[in-house]
Design brief:
about 350 residues, mainly alpha
Length: about 350
């Protein structure tokens, strides 16, 4: 059966229906395990000064993540930090309102169109970043399991995921060192259509440049340090939100929260992980000893406050950089003159 627009639309509608139904079921599960009047009371008792501090930490973390991304692009090309920060928060904003991680595409498009960086190089850099983040998440998960007896998923599933991430990372790191500068004449590559082969040949050096963080020991140490710093900042942010909602948990307990939130982000099930995120945080916090009603209010608040912050930053960046919605996915390069960055 040929792939048509109608069939694609039907698939998307089916996926959307499934995700909405699952999100509603998960939220219903969370509500069934709490008392909504007590959840409302938790919002009434919350100390919003701490929540505002958490939002400030979250905002600063966007800058740290942008610096992190800048190091992955070190060999691909140079981009002014303000412009890169703008593209990053716009991508976050797009992810906040559209499904399927479209924001990843949007931020690559903005940087490619405004600053001339290779899309292939940025995609390769993003792959390296995702794998390094996965290794760090797995490491934190091991720490949480060993030190805090945190059981987020069945042990077999954990070890399968850990093995996949580590093996893939090792393979990509090895490939980054062994890949030649120019496209090799491997027989399978010679079977490609001429246009595809030429496109791959042109992109090959940029793809290799995107893997520089895996090949350069000093750069690898820097991005790993920034990854750990990002997780540390996120832990403090979640802890600060915990102070706002009077959960009474020590800072160490929020390592489990960060790991759980990270796993939910890596393996999205519903749009914006609605329902999944709330149920997971509710159960993790309850396991740590937090009251369920306050924990559910906490999960809702962290989502709402983060969404407001990233929406505000994304819209402000679009205004300052004069980015129109139609610019987010265009392949046309735009002269950066006059933009903010």
């Amino acid at each position: 059966m040929p792939w048509t627009n109608a069939r694609a639309s039907a698939v998307l509608r089916s996926r959307w229906t499934f995700e909405v139904t699952l999100a509603a079921a998960l939220l219903a599960l969370a509500i069934a395990r709490t008392d909504l009047s007590d959840v409302g009371a938790a919002f009434t008792r919350a100390r919003y000064g701490w929540a505002m501090l958490a939002v400030l930490i979250y905002t600063l973390s966007r800058l740290l993540h942008t610096i992190h991304w800048q190091f992955y692009l070190r060999k691909v090309g140079r981009v002014p930090l303000p412009g890169l920060l703008g593209a990053f928060v716009i991508g976050n904003f797009v992810d906040n309102v559209l499904p399927a991680r479209i924001g990843e595409i949007a931020r690559i498009q903005i940087v490619a169109n405004r600053y001339g960086l290779s899309r292939a190089g940025m995609v390769a850099g993003r792959a390296a970043e995702a794998l390094l983040d996965g290794v760090t998440t797995i490491s934190l998960l091991v720490i949480a399991v060993v030190l805090f007896r945190f059981a987020f998923a069945p042990a077999a599933l954990f070890w399968v995921a850990a093995t996949f991430v580590v093996v893939t990372f090792a393979a990509l790191a090895l490939a980054s060192r062994l890949l030649p500068r120019e496209l090799p004449g491997w027989r399978p590559l010679r079977l490609l259509p001429e246009r595809a082969g030429q496109a791959l040949s042109d992109a090959w050096p940029r793809i290799r440049d995107g893997l520089e963080a895996l090949r350069n020991a000093r750069l690898l140490a820097i991005v790993l340090a920034l990854t750990v710093a990002g997780y540390a900042m996120e832990t403090v942010m979640f802890w600060t939100f915990g102070l706002a909602f009077r959960l009474g948990l020590p800072l160490s307990a929020y390592v489990s929260v960060v790991v759980a939130a990270g796993v939910v982000r890596v393996f999205p099930i519903t749009f914006q992980n609605i329902g999944t995120y709330e149920v997971v945080l509710l159960e993790v916090l309850a396991r740590q000893g937090a009251p369920r009603d306050a924990a559910f209010a906490y999960a809702l608040a962290t989502r709402v406050f983060a969404s407001i912050a990233i929406t505000t930053m994304g819209l402000l960046a679009m205004w300052l950089m004069r980015v129109h919605p139609r610019d987010l996915f265009t392949m046309r390069r735009r002269d950066p003159a006059g933009s903010a960055g």
